[in-house]
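Exercise 7b. Backbone tokens:
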């Protein structure tokens, strides 16, 4: 049986894909589920199904009742999305062995389309038409594949960025003012919640982060950028591409071996990237000096 943490990692692991126009996207399986259940995504797919029903590309209307002709499209969509989701989950399994794996959505869509077309035409329409519907698997798969690629290209170009932004911490925090927050506020790291006031420093190490809290250290699979996106300048500062320091844990700017560092209250030095020096210095002037008053 899969361990709870392993299953959580499976769902939160980054999946890398190419869209039909060659655009690169990275998101977890959980994010994918949220996107496909978003009202905007469902509206987009609903309009596409209405278009298919209106044009009747399979020519089924001559062989089955109108309600069957109308119902076959959402049924086919459900089969297609079930296959697509299963393939995305399989990609998450594969990514555990090769983290840089990037799969074209066109390839995923093609293999998800095969059972959808076969079941819709050779099983459902064939039987409901009493064997009169002339199923043409070979010809129709190519037509539907090209049609879906056009729709996916439009979706990834115009709809996906909006829907994805609605399910990321950046959008949720963008609408909030950078004011001091209650001590009960939490951030999510690798599917686990941490009280913000307990966190002292976070260090990124390859594909994991090491979180130092008042209770000790925790190592989880996550991206530092996703964590920082849940915070505000009042909470802390990212001093380096691999480091984030909480305001309450920071003491003062200094130098170690000629390199800029931010000393913690424990006097532990945290590196400051030279490219971020002005930003960190301004942050320290505003927040650390104000705390000292």
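Sequence design result:
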């Amino acid at each position: 049986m899969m361990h709870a943490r392993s299953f959580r990692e499976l769902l939160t692991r980054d999946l890398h894909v190419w869209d039909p126009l060659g655009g690169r996207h990275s998101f977890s399986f959980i994010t994918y589920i949220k996107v496909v259940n978003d009202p905007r995504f469902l509206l987009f797919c609903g309009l596409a199904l209405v278009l298919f029903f209106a044009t009747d590309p399979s020519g089924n209307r001559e062989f089955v009742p109108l309600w069957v002709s109308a119902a076959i499209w959402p049924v086919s969509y459900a089969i297609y999305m079930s296959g697509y989701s299963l393939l995305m989950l399989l990609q998450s399994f594969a990514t555990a062995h090769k983290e840089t794996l990037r799969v074209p959505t066109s390839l995923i869509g093609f293999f998800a389309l095969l059972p959808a077309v076969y079941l819709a035409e050779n099983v459902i329409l064939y039987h409901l038409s009493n064997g009169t519907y002339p199923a043409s698997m070979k010809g129709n798969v190519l037509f539907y594949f090209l049609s879906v690629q056009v729709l996916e290209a439009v979706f990834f170009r115009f709809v996906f960025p909006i829907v994805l932004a609605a399910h990321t911490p950046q959008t949720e925090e963008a609408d909030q003012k950078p004011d001091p927050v209650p001590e009960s506020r939490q951030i999510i790291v690798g599917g686990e919640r941490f009280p913000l006031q307990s966190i002292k420093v976070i260090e990124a190490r390859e594909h994991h982060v090491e979180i130092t809290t008042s209770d000790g250290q925790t190592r989880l699979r996550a991206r530092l950028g996703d964590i920082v996106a849940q915070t505000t300048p009042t909470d802390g500062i990212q001093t380096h591409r691999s480091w984030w320091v909480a305001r309450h844990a920071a003491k003062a700017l200094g130098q170690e071996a000629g390199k800029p560092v931010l000393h913690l209250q424990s006097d532990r030095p945290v590196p400051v990237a030279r490219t971020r020096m002005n930003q960190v210095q301004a942050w320290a002037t505003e927040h650390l000096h104000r705390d000292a008053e």
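Instructor comment: The chain has two domains: 4-167, 180-292. Residues 149 and 284 are 50 Å apart (CA to CA).
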